């Protein structure tokens, strides 16, 4: 029976962690130079010290900014402790998430890196991401205080997972500008916070003690009742807090 | 002279592509089990056939959705052609970007995967990401038509890099719901489109013929003049189109 490209992608996509393409469907254009060696996926997770990971992320921020920082604090720390396969990862790629991806201010890079790390080491990653993102939207950040600094950084509630909203809201609260060194320091500390929370959540999942406490807020559930899956409109998707953008519903929207 | 953790992170961060942590600063907690073998970074890029990559992404969408799809179309295709180091990547991790990261509808997963791939193989990645994201915001998508399907999918202009906005705008134009099979098909084709564009841009950069044609639009430059770097307010950052969210500036904003 001939195996199709799709079947192989599906098979490898489910079973293997590394490459998902074989010379079997290379269309004669090329031949893979090395045999494909599937490794177990996800990569195994071992309990991390959240404070050690936070320190690594804070310092990593200086090298590669937010996404690189959180990923380094989790996967880099596992590489330090365990070696392979963690140390085979091209960590510098993670610089791409800086400032909401190449400074576009879309998704917060700290969250982008943390989500990637969670999916790499958890076999039930989505509840962990949901909890992390929910926490990030609702808590006053940053909390992290570097040992060698007495500088106070005013915390703020982002109410959003987006870099743009998170930064602008902090600028409003702190009175500092978006390209100030204080904002850089705020984001470095926030990167450490996200890593610490991620390590705590992964540790809880490992110990089977994980219990989410940041569900989707009621005011977002109210929007989703009509606009999300199964609603009469069903014209959107997602779990973000709606209110930071949709604060003015206009006159055409029914009273809520 | 004692080398600090920070100096080593910086050194490795600049020079090496793989792991960035060594036992030198493991605080005695652990010892890496394998020597660290830095490889050149970025990984070398070779010209890809954009249509072949698009087909891989379209099919990859079925396995791991949008982010996995675009990353597979670029890095998976290089793995197929070249083997290592591309085939050492844990491709399944990229499932995390589905539906704007774990279905949060933040950054479009197709763009998230493409940006990661671009940073992995380009030594001047940011202009390529800028062009790709600019194109995505302004063009009618999807364009891709699978060979084995006559199904027509209505295209729409996302005007945003965010999954939520992109999907809702498509729902409005197409009249299909956000969780319909048509919307799934739309995102699978859009994943192929993003991969094709990414391969074209990387090919152009390789051939030194890359010339951006999707600069930041004038109406966004107008906002940035006051709100972004160097502006009188400087209370935000980013390159996203402002107008899909800030369509109502309220009475307190000066007339523009």
Which descriptors apply to this entry?
46% helix; 7 helices; globular; mainly alpha; 256 residues; homodimer
Architecture blueprint of SSEs:
The structure is a homodimer of 256-residue chains.
Chain A: H1 5-15, H2 50-82, H3 109-121, H4 125-138, H5 163-174, H6 181-206, H7 218-227
Helix pairs in contact in A: 2-3, 2-6, 3-4, 3-6, 4-6
What's this entry about, in short?
Two copies of one chain form a homodimer. The first copy, chain A, is 46% helix and 0% strand.
- Quaternary state, please? homodimer
The run of helices and strands of chain A is HHHHHHH
| Helix content bin of chain A | 40-55%
Q: State the helix count of chain A.
A: 7
Structure, explained:
The structure is a homodimer of 256-residue chains. Chain A is mainly α. Chain A has helices at residues 5-15, 50-82, 109-121, 125-138, 163-174, 181-206, 218-227. In chain A, helix 3 (109-121) runs parallel beside helix 6. The longest helix of chain A has 33 residues, at 50-82. The termini of chain A are far apart. At the A-B interface, helix 1, helix 2, helix 3, helix 4 and helix 5 of A face helix 1, helix 2, helix 3, helix 4 and helix 5 of B.
